[in-house]
Amino acid sequence: MRPVMLGWRHDPHFIYRIYRRGAMTVLVVGAGATGGYFGAELHRAGRDVTFLVRPARAAQLRERGLRIVGAGQTTAMDPELVTAQGIAATWDVVLLTVKATALEPAIADFTPAVGPDTAIIPILNGMSHLDILNARFGESRVLGGVAVIATQLDSAGDIAQLAPGASLDIGRQDGRTTDRLARVGRELDVPGFDLTVRDDIVAAMWQKWVFIATVGATTCLMRAPIGDIVAVPGGRDLGPAILAEAAAASEAAGYPVPPQQLAGIESAVTAEGSTLTSSLSRDAVENRHTEVEAVLGDLARRAAALGVKTPLLDLATMQLRVHETELNAR
What we know:
The protein is built from twelve helices and twelve strands. With 330 residues, it is α/β, with parallel strands linked by helices. It folds into two domains: 4-199, NAD(P)-binding Rossmann-like Domain (Rossmann fold), CATH 3.40.50; 204-328, N-(1-d-carboxylethyl)-l-norvaline Dehydrogenase, domain 2. The strands form three sheets. The chain has a five-stranded parallel β-sheet, sandwiched between helices. Strands 5, 6, 10, 11 and 12 form a five-stranded mixed β-sheet that branches. The chain has a two-stranded antiparallel ribbon with strand order 1-2. α6 (201-222) runs parallel beside α10, α6 crosses α12 and α11 runs antiparallel to α12. The longest helix has 22 residues, at 201-222.
């Protein structure tokens, strides 16, 4: 077990090496808005964390450090980094935090880091990534994961925290509780975010999918935040109509969304004056590639296979596919 050197030059709370007998090693794949935040909090708590990044991101982090900014404060640290070409060992935990569009290249990069007992925790939108990872590594090694966090990468490469608080839920896909899962849970349980080990993680993933698909389709179709949409005639009805489609698909798949959560989502997409938007619509408005297939396309496809009609989800999917085609033609 190698020691963890904390970034004492930037973080006055930690000015020494911590040796943790029996501790697990954690490889965070990606150091963007999600992976950078969770990995940084694990690092601050003395966990043995390494970030797997591309060479350009590695150079940026070596120059500036890994920085989390927001609420008038900046936290910076010197993370341990590795590129795909530098992997020469396996890790106990792989925290996969890339976007769905980067999943296949990421798998190629981190595969050499996966050993017989490695636990892979993907934090991606939708469900299709589980099918891909299960086929590659086996279901027993791939946990389910749900993250709730409000961060984005700014122009300097720093992680901007847009709202306080973050959480990470994990669990086995079969719902079983094992000693290995409990140990992973203890390793990831640090002060920087709320960690929950669940026996219904797949249901939780579907519930989050319904939420992000509803908000994503609503704001993409209208290219506006929720408050602007509900302010016009008929706008208040759009979000609930899309929610009904997404929830019907989830229920048909065997994962009905609890009434209280449905009410919360409906409230979110009908709130007057709300600035709520989605990464899908932000990416589309700023002429970036989107996660349309993982968030909307796959949900619409599964719904069709289950006999559930989703005309509004289909329309939003088509709109973003046209956007992707236009970007690819440039």
